[in-house]
Amino acid sequence: QVQLVESGGGLAQPGGSLRLSCAASGRTLTINTMAWFRQAPGKEREFVCDIKWNSGRTHYLDAVEDRFTVSRDKAENTMSLQMNSLRTEDTGVYYCAVASGPRTGYEYWGRGTQVTVSS
């Protein structure tokens, strides 16, 4: 089991920035990939970005690629998401997720942190 706790959400103005963090505990040696997903009100959850735990290789949703940066700290078992140039459409609950293998899907999820972008 891997436990995940997100932090850092809040309110930002359009064009502003927020930084999210996800702390992993438990069987962290099994982590293959960590990811951020988000769910806006009335919409389905969508993939935002991921990072391979060992290589650090990243992958982004097109809509955020030039504005968001995902990183991880293997020593601290944390993943961060730096979000710049925020837009109102970035509003939603952001979830951290972990996959233990390349084809296992995301097996572990955090409870989410709210991000609201509004003037």
Supply database-style keywords.
11 strands; 7-stranded mixed beta sheet; 119 residues; mainly beta
* Percentage of β-strand residues: over 45%
| Biggest sheet descriptor | 7 strands, mixed
Distance between the termini: 40 Å
* Overall pLDDT score: 96
Q: What structural class is derived from the secondary structure elements? A: mainly beta
Counting DSSP E segments of at least 2 residues, the number of strands comes to 11
* Weakly predicted, low-confidence segments: none
Overall spatial form? globular
Share of residues in helices: under 10%
How would you characterize the overall build of this protein?
0% of the residues lie in helices and 52% in strands. It has strands spanning 2-7, 10-12, 18-26, 33-39, 46-52, 58-60, 68-73, 78-83, 92-99, 108-109, 113-117. Strands 2, 4, 5, 6, 9, 10 and 11 form a seven-stranded mixed β-sheet that branches. Strands 1-3-8-7 form a four-stranded antiparallel β-sheet, with no helix packed on it. Strand 7 (68-73) and strand 8 (78-83) form a beta hairpin. The mean pLDDT is 96.
Question: How do the helices and strands line up, and which of them pair or pack?
Answer:
Blueprint lengths: L1 E6 L2 E3 L5 E9 L6 E7 L6 E7 L5 E3 L7 E6 L4 E6 L8 E8 L8 E2 L3 E5 L2
Parallel strand pairs: 2-11
Antiparallel strand pairs: 1-3, 3-8, 4-5, 4-9, 5-6, 7-8, 9-10, 9-11
